[in-house]
Amino acid sequence: MESETIVPIVIVAAMVLLAVAFFASRRKRAVTEKRRGEAAEHRAQAADVRLAAESKAAAADERAARARREQLLAEEERRAAERAASEADDLTRRADEVDPDVDVDLRHEDVADDSTTDGER
Questions:
Q1: Total-model pTM
Q2: Is 93 exposed, middle or buried (0-12, 13-18, 19+ CB in 10 A)?
Q3: What residue segments make up the domains of the chain, in order of their start?
Q4: How far is CA 35 from the centre of its chain?
Q5: pLDDT at residue 121 above 50?
Q6: What does each C-alpha distance from 75 to 26, 84, 85, 88, 89 come to in angstroms?
C-alpha cells in the first residue's frame, strides 16, 4: 500500500514542479519583453533629447558666427572712421598751409596746447 500512495504523490509533485517551472518561464519572458519595451522608449527619448541639444548647439554656433561678423564689421567701420578723421586732419593742415590768413606756426602751437590740455584733464 505504501507504493500505491507514494507513486501518485511523486507524480503530483512532479506535475506541480513542472507547472511552477512553466509559469516561472512565462513570467520571465513577460518581464524581459516589458524591459525591452522600456529600453526602446528610453532610446527614443534619448534620440529626441539629442536632437534638441544638437539644434540648440547649432543655433548657438549661428549666433556666435553672427556676433563675430558684427564685431568684424564694427572694427572695419572704426578703422574707416579713423582713416576719415586722419584725412580730415590732413585736409585741414593743407588748408591752413594754403590759407594766407592762417599763421601755420601759430596754429600748430595752438593744437599742441590743446592736446596737452586734453591730456591733463
A1: 0.50
A2: middle
A3: 2-120
A4: 34
A5: no
A6: 73, 14, 15, 20, 21
